[in-house]
Predict the 3D structure of the following.
Amino acid sequence: MISQIELYIIEKVKEKRIELGLSQLALSQKLDMNDSFVSHVESSSKRAKYNVNHINALSKVLKCSPKDFLPEKPF
């Protein structure tokens, strides 16, 4: 089961991805991951999720701070 914090991070990354006009495929490729990586993370039927290294790489690609993907207060 995916946790509340993981869902939050996935949604924040998705929002930023869409805001920048990037497809799931394009973001996966920019991260040097399998073409379906972001698709699997954003899918509720898959168990894939972002880890700390992914968040750091996402911050570089999406030109923002890693903090942008985390809530201000814990769940």
